Amino acid sequence: MASHIAGYPRMGPKRELKFALESFWDKKSSADDLKKVAADLKSSIWKQMSAVGIKYIPSNTFSFYDQMLDTTSMLGAVPPRYGWNGGEIGFDTYFSMARGNASVPAMEMTKWFDTNYHFIVPELGPDVKFSYASHKAVDEFKEAKALGVNTVPVLIGPVSYLLLSKPAKGVEKTFSLLSLLPKIIPVYKEVVSELKAAGASWIQFDEPTLVLDLDSQQLGSFTTAYSDLESTLSGLNVLIETYFADLTPEAYKTLTGLKGVTAYGLDLVRGTQTTELVKKDFPKGKYLFAGVVDGRNIWANDLASSLSTLQALEAVVGKDNLVVSTSCSLLHTAVDLVNEIKLDDEIKSWLAFAAQKVVEVNALAKALAGQKDEAFFSSNAAAQASRKSSPRVTNEAVQKAAAALKGSDHRRATNVTARLDAQQKKLNLPILPTTTIGSFPQTAELRRVRREYKANKVSEDDYVKAMKEEIKKVVDLQEELDIDVLVHGEPERNDMVEYFGEQLSGFAFTVNGWVQSYGSRCVKPPIIYGDVSRPKPMTVFWSSAAQSMTKRPMKGMLTGPVTILNWSFVRNDQPRFETCYQIALAIKDEVEDLEKASINVIQIDEAALREGLPLRKSEHAFYLKWAVHSFRITNCGVKDTTQIHTHMCYSNFNDIIHSIIDMDADVITIENSRSDEKLLSVFREGVKYGAGIGPGVYDIHSPRIPSTEEIVDRINKMLAVLESNILWVNPDCGLKTRKYDEVKPALNNMVAAAKQLRTKLASAK
């Protein structure tokens, strides 16, 4: 019985790639140094899978930034502003597309389906000249082969690539991206031909858009594409991989009818109904790559349950045609549990990171083949039983409080217009008030102090002193820049979710459980294993200290319940909304304590609210109802004069704008600049928004410093569709990943732009 891994984490067990990338970007190391780190990581991954016994090992799932960007490079679809003149795409062009440079902005970045991973959105139009411009897929296959490992090269499929793209600036929004299919297929044919010549026997096309709500024309594009590729694919075994949700019956019929395709990879963890489609009708002689090991969470697989599922499928597809697989790439989980030296043994026994999931896949394959490892299965069963019965998982008081939430929608008593009037009397802010989103640059010294405090090498008094000095520096800088509503800069926080999770019950934490978010940015999601509550205040001390340093309003900075949920590894033994309501009650306690401490502006970030939206439209309403309700729970008890902000970033918000309005926040700051002001189009189309709103005026994920004139232009576009009395001026997101020599001039230009327009608005009265 064969085994397959759909993809693997790239950063390395201790973020080796992250540090190599940042060193290269800072010009502290060479391209050869970066490539050497990458080669070592890939070699280690391939050899590890080979040693475990995995038959179908992926290549070309490694990336220096993003696999969609790799595909853009492969197709030579470089936007003209980057000045690429043909030839093999090198690091300069590649990283300029990802991060921007001194003269041009980066390409748009958005969430990969409903995950916390971000991809670089291709910008396409009728005039794009596609050409084979990056040989990475073939080079990696040869690289693995030289190590004695025969891999399955993985490509983003042509239809999903186009469906996940957007019309370039200046191209009609109605332009059919799928009309480009005949132009990109020839490049795919070149890549496939080279892979065949290099000795590949299998090839994997990732077509995850098959799980979306697609119309007949879109589904027909898959048929067209693979019919066109059929002759080139002849002689290869072709796997089409889908993931993250069920296939509709129409999509399943399309998939299983594709010409030249040998195998179908299905997510049977999130796609529970897809199993029934397989049982009803599976093409004879084809392979099923059954994704029964969860690629998106860190819980140990229930091996007995998975084996039962596989045995039922084996009866349908045939013993020789069933391959045990992961539900999706393991990119979305942490790398290796062996690096976790601080987790207690009980919780550790409940978990499986990427390296352990590889072992689980192989153990299931061997069990199907009659070589069941009884000791391994017995240990797994004991861990499953331990988790179900452990007293640390359940808190009756928390469950009772969450159950009592039913029957109320938890809205503030006064409407937002009246609240904004009351808040303005108290805060006395100018028109077009300026603020930032929360975090300020985290210097190496700051990280050192925080790291040493956690390791008990720095006393609590010295730690508090160092943090207060950093807060004072950030406050003084904001006052010097003349920003209106200040933040304390969050020097005490390494990660916005981890920070809160460490202070809430029901959470566990890892030392090296890093997961890639985008580029070199990694996050370390907390693990929610039990019922959630707040034992004591979490941020009041730092917010009060910061407010005492200034007469200007100081924002209390919290992470909202939906974002904590969506950016954690969540328990899978109860519905997600029940866990979210528990977190909402904990954050509500914190909001009310901040208000008592005279913090008059409180930001409750819901950066990941859109991210959790189910992929199927039929499931949207239920999710949005409980997600928006959870946010309202957090602040339903505050006074009218307390201004509640929220923040959202890097997703397409236009389709949920009415739910955002229903959150009933006083002010929302939201990503706007990197997506070509896509957000503003919803207001041009007539949506009325009465609360305060701050569409981001510049992209903080690029080192590029915007000019005052550029920001003025952006604000003017906002003023064309939004009233000046509700508009705020702010960056797209927090400033943690930037350097002070980037942040100071950018914020200075932002404030100058706001003042320039205030003067203009005043003179127009």
From TrEMBL:
Annotated positions binding Zn(2+) 2: 658, 662
Q: Does the keyword Glycoprotein apply?
A: no
- GO biological-process terms attached to the record: methylation
Listed pathway(s)? Amino-acid biosynthesis; L-methionine biosynthesis via de novo pathway; L-methionine from L-homocysteine (MetE route): step 1/1
MF term (GO), any: zinc ion binding
Q: What does this protein do?
A: Catalyzes the transfer of a methyl group from 5-methyltetrahydrofolate to homocysteine resulting in methionine formation.
The Swiss-Prot or TrEMBL record lists the needed cofactor(s) as: Zn(2+)
Keywords from the UniProt entry: Amino-acid biosynthesis, Metal-binding, Methionine biosynthesis, Methyltransferase, Transferase, Zinc
Give binding positions for L-methionine.
437-439, 490, 605
- EC numbers listed for it are 2.1.1.14
Q: Active site annotated at which positions?
A: 701 (proton donor)
Give the protein name, as stated in the record: 5-methyltetrahydropteroyltriglutamate--homocysteine S-methyltransferase
- Family note: Belongs to the vitamin-B12 independent methionine synthase family.
The Cobalamin-independent methionine synthase MetE N-terminal domain, residue ranges: 3-316
The protein's superkingdom reads Eukaryota
Q: Does the keyword Amino-acid biosynthesis apply?
A: yes
User: What is the species of this protein?
Assistant: Hibiscus syriacus (Rose of Sharon)
What does the UniProt cofactor note say?
Binds 2 Zn(2+) ions per subunit.
Residue positions binding 5-methyltetrahydropteroyltri-L-glutamate: 18, 116, 521-522, 567
Q: What reaction(s) does this enzyme catalyze?
A: 5-methyltetrahydropteroyltri-L-glutamate + L-homocysteine = tetrahydropteroyltri-L-glutamate + L-methionine
Quick one: which residues bind Zn(2+) 1? 647, 649, 671, 733
Leading EC class: transferase
The Cobalamin-independent methionine synthase MetE C-terminal/archaeal domain is annotated at 432-755
